[in-house]
Queue: 2 jobs
Job 1
Amino acid sequence: MLRPKDTSTRERKSLNGMWQFALDQAGAGRSGQWFMRPLPDAREMAVPASFNDIAADAAVRDYFGDIWYQTSVWIPRGWQGRRIVLHFESATHRATVWVNDVEVVSHEGGYTPFEADITEHVTAGEQVRITAVVNNTLSFQSIPPGVIEDTPAGKRQIYWHDFFNYAGIHRTVWLYATDPAHITDVTVVTDLDGATGVVNYTIEAEGADDLQTRVTLRDADGQEVATKTGTTGTLHIPNVNKWAPGDGYLYELELQLVQGDTVLDSYTQSVGVRTVKVDGIKFLINGEPFSFKGFGRHEDLPVIGKGHNDAYLLHDFELLRWIGANSFRTSHYPYCEDVLDYADRQGVVLIDETAAVGLNMGLGGGIFGGQGYKTFSPETANDVTQQVHAKAIRELITRDKNHPSVVLWSIANEPESETPEAEDYFRPLFDVAREADPTRPVGFVNVMLAPHGKCRVSKFGDVLMLNRYYGWYVNTGDLEAAELAWEEELTAWAGEGKPIIITEYGADTYPGLHSVVAGNPWSEEYQVEYLDMNHRVFDRIEAVVGEHVWNFADFTTTSGIMRVGGNKKGVFTRDRQPKTAAHALRRRWRDDL
Ligand code: BDP
């Protein structure tokens, strides 16, 4: 699937703005065919945004079930004879969509795009009604998982990930038009041969059997550097300008379907020429050892929740630059594609993660003890879950495969990984990832409950990604003991001979809480002491090639005694003010200061 774009032959129209909106508490909308007419008792809702925090009402914030969205749109008169497509960049966690009275698409998974060819159901120059029923419930067969429990007070949605289950239409909805003959996908794989850049491309198209496929590669100044015909081929760039960390140089590949002198379809794909390879304990980008400095993050903003916002995107990247970070992980789900595009342009390196978070009944919202379920069993996470998970991996890779910024796939965060059931569940999922993308390393993020010697899944990964909270969840306030225990475990992992990225280490810190005495958790000073201790350990172990602090900014979670107005492990507050630790990290990460 290609991201909708304006090109010389394609036109897109954003459906963002105010939609009609109704919560379907009684679950009456599907059988009552709400898509046939204006939604009953509708209010207005902003798209893109999470609906949860808009109403200032706990019943809305904590609602789970069917959520109806409706809008109407004019099909441009000039789109007569064109192929017309309705495209959702995401709907969390699943949706079914109707155009007028006709169901056109259903999609499972809250963070990847889906679309429907609606040409047959619309008329150029006329208005159509678009209705989407979004559903945000989590079950053992969804990614991420959850369960609905019956309690004396009614049904409650339970889940085991430590961030609020924001839902709705979080990203842009597009209507776009192409020629009936159109390109459906392109895969670009780059390589380096000395100073020559190698760009392998494969194009897929529909209705194009009798057409010629033409590609033209241009540099950042718009100068043509190579051209070719055919749906698959290799282009060479003498004296290539590489894409590298901190230097997001991009070429542009124009793809065309041509009949005689007429270009029927044209699409542009940006291309960063770089290589990624794991070699022993080294993580190589363009053959050079790369060391990850940065954060685990969240899509989490005041009022709009997981809704995308360009101004925050720019500001967050400014803060990454300010602090000297070169990378981050899209914890714990695929991010808005605007984020990936911008990372490409900025030369920021990404670990790209699926939404498989919370597949661990030993945990819940952090390290809070068992949940009373077995993680993997026929009744809980089972074969169906595994298939949904496999699809989530495929959809992530299909969507993000052409982003040079993405150097590593993370197929899950902190799942149960110490049991034979976990081993059986994950083994085939690594194959799924490698089949979908043979060019990038694959890993998963290991949790403290499955330390070295116990984890049965790490052996499948190309790199080791570890989340550890020595000095926070264990050895709280005792950094001396934490340092000994952490170094012992990390030394054991280093014996595996793989690169190690510390994908999470962090301490909750209440901004403004200070302490002159060391070892005082929640204070700004303790966050600094905690990070310093971790860095001493990392600096003694050669296999550690990355440090991603948890978290870039404070974020919203469910309520609980372990959370004070959300998770406070941010180095920045939720409104992006630095805690003391931000300055300390800046001194460590910026080598130009
Ligand atoms: C880890 C999770 C992360 C949590 C974090 C924490 O990967 O999502 O927010 O710990 O407890 O277990 O702060």
Job 2
Amino acid sequence: MTNHETLVSPVGVTLDRFIKRQQSSLPFASGELSQLLRDIALAGKIINREINRAGLVDITGAFGMENVQGEAQQKLDVIANVRFIRALKNGGEVSAIITEEDEGIIYTDNDEGKYVVAIDPLDGSSNIDVNVSIGTIFSIYRRITPTGTKPTIDDFLQGGRSQVAAGYILYGSSTILVYTTGQGVNTFTYENSLGEYFLSQTDLKSPEDGSIYSVNEGYYNSFVSPARAYITNCKLRDYNSRYIGSLVADFHRNLLKGGIYLYPPSKKHPKGKLRLMYECYPLAFIAEQAGAAASDGYQDILDIEPTELHQRTPMIIGSSEMVRDALSYF
Ligand code: P6P
């Protein structure tokens, strides 16, 4: 490879430049979706800073920074919710939002906005205040109601295969943005000192098989029997058990290394705990784009008919061979 070629290798390009390059292949390449992806990336930078700073303020609390002390008192997931809503409202491309933090549809008053967004602003709530990886999950639809009118619930309940883009931001040892627009999965690593996301992997493909399983073993006895049978077999096969309690972190590790994550129906969550619109649909879109799979035990997650905004579903997601094997127990 000549020096020139190494200089133009895609890895290392900034998110902005990458989006510009991809725009020609984006559906409805009008620039609005590109701008929307930038708006989400910006909100991710702000949340990343809040997460890193909250601990500091908690410890010292005396920096006297304007209202930060107040914000630090608030739970970080509430701060994340406010930041994402503000970024999407100011961006102008989104006409409505649903979020795990609010019961109803949030209207941005940008009725000309062509897109609606479903978002879990900060997933992994049990880990938020104890410095364990957490994440943002987002799903983007092109609205089906006429622009210029007030969006309706129908704009959200289009079904998983109508997503035009989906992704997540993982706030871990480094902050990573992973998204797809239906042309493969690309990952970006955030460089704090430069305030930029840099392309780290293009067209990521997940290993077809693996030996990591992620499930809350504490609920073993309350899971449905097919799940118990599969989990028992994972142990008999000496699989590695890895469960962080943050779906984004478990999903990302399994996507890269090969593995399976399960949240089956249980006594406490007979329909499963995870939310279809802003946890399962987006991760299932990414999984399928990366050659992995996602099911509720009986059908692909992306084929589940949505009926309500905060609908829950069981989910089995990860390496295609492992999901196929797990489904043989259901
Ligand atoms: P449990 C976090 O609340 C979450 O939605 C996922 O991120 C995580 O995998 C799961 O719930 C943890 O749930 O019941 O095992 O604590």
